[in-house]
Design goal:
Length: 330
């Protein structure tokens, strides 16, 4: 049925383009999302037509033909009951398996992803590449490479939406949310805020430029020379005095941050958790929430002193501390 719908659409490319039936499909998951969507639409149309046709047919067939006529009581046959229970249940199971597998695939960025960081604020998108370049309402990405986007908001809830890639996710203040996509063709695609966020919400739009890998490398190198996010984070790390406690010379007062990112660690109350962006953020803003065995809760809070952009840079720096050597080396 799906193939049938798809080929039906493909045979009318001119009409589909004219009617803007759907946005361009320019990411690796776009076609799968479209197929699921077509299937849902197809099933909905099929059953709506079926049910309404039957209603109209029965209205005519069983209408009252003389003023004195009254209905007779009937009992639904068991087979009929079973049929209209089992078939829709099976359809629901198929749809569930199909859509949840797509959801899971959509929720896990591949390890090889390039990273980009997004801060939403009233009313614009700030985007930062780990290599350093910053953009506002514009995003340059290479074609054919998975791109992981880590997002947060500086004020209210926004929503990062690129229709051509079929990705959309809320951007929340106080935590990080992630999406990923792999562009499949070069071009320029719309970027929207899809969550009403105040007066100028409708202007919170931008463009995604998907470039060939060589063009992208040229673009990255071409802008004004900037430090990488990790280098900027390193400067903040000494500016805020983090090193006073966390450097190896400060022996024993605070845990080493080298290599903690992505690793599981044990907390004082015996729980195990994996160190991710949210945990590092939490440790910096609400240090007492992080309870490591063998350490005193002496870390001061940096709430109100570090903005979202600096936070991402500090996190990038902590992530870059791959090993003990790296930390001792400076
Ligand atoms: C006064 C010393 C001190 C300063 C300054 C300090 N920290 Fe800490 N930090 C600690 C201690 C102690 C812990 C462990 C807290 C606990 O177990 O309750 C910690 C925990 C952390 C953790 C969690 C580590 C883990 O493995 O879970 C991170 C991340 C962190 N600090 C980052 C920073 C950053 C970034 C700065 C600067 C903005 C900073 N710290 C400044 C003492 C300090
Ligand atoms: Cu918004």
């Amino acid at each position: 049925m799906m193939g049938f719908l798809q080929s039906g659409l493909d045979s009318l490319p001119g009409v589909a383009a004219m009617m803007q039936f759907k946005p361009p499909a320019a990411s690796s998951i776009a076609d799968s999302v479209d197929q699921l969507y077509l299937m849902l639409t197809g099933i909905t149309i099929f059953f709506s037509v079926l049910i309404f046709s039957i209603i109209f047919y029965f209205m005519l067939k069983y209408r009252r033909k003389s003023p004195g006529e009254s209905g007779t009581e009937t009992h639904t046959p068991m087979m009929l009951e079973l049929t209209w229970t089992i078939i829709p249940s099976l359809i629901c199971v198929v749809l569930f398996v199909w859509s949840s597998s797509l959801y899971v695939r959509n929720g896990r960025p591949p390890n090889s992803s390039t990273e980009i960081f997004v801060i939403g604020k009233q009313w614009m998108w700030h985007l930062q590449h780990p290599e350093g370049p910053r953009e506002i309402n514009e995003l340059h990405v290479p074609v054919g490479v998975p791109v992981k986007i880590t997002m947060t908001s500086q004020d209210v809830i926004h929503d990062f939406y690129i229709p051509a890639f079929r990705v959309k996710k809320d951007v929340l203040p106080g935590r990080y949310s992630q999406i990923w996509f792999q562009p499949t063709e070069t071009g320029t695609f719309h970027l929207f805020c899809a969550q009403y966020c105040g007066t100028n919400h409708s202007q919170m739009i931008g463009w995604v430029y998907v470039m060939s890998p060589t063009d992208y490398a040229t673009w990255l190198a071409g802008g004004e020379k900037t430090e990488s996010m990790a280098q900027q984070g390193e400067r903040l790390f000494s500016q805020f005095g983090c090193g006073n406690c966390h450097s190896p010379e400060a022996a024993g007062h605070a845990p080493s941050l080298a290599g903690i990112y992505g690793k599981p660690e044990k907390t004082q109350n015996g729980e195990t958790r994996v160190v991710d962006e949210d945990l590092i953020r939490q440790a910096i803003l609400v240090p007492n929430s992080v309870h490591l065995p063998n350490y005193q809760p002496i870390m001061p809070t940096y709430q109100g002193q570090i903005d979202e952009e600096q936070m991402l840079q500090l996190i990038a720096y902590v992530k870059s501390l791959g090993s003990e050597e790296r930390m001792n080396g400076k």
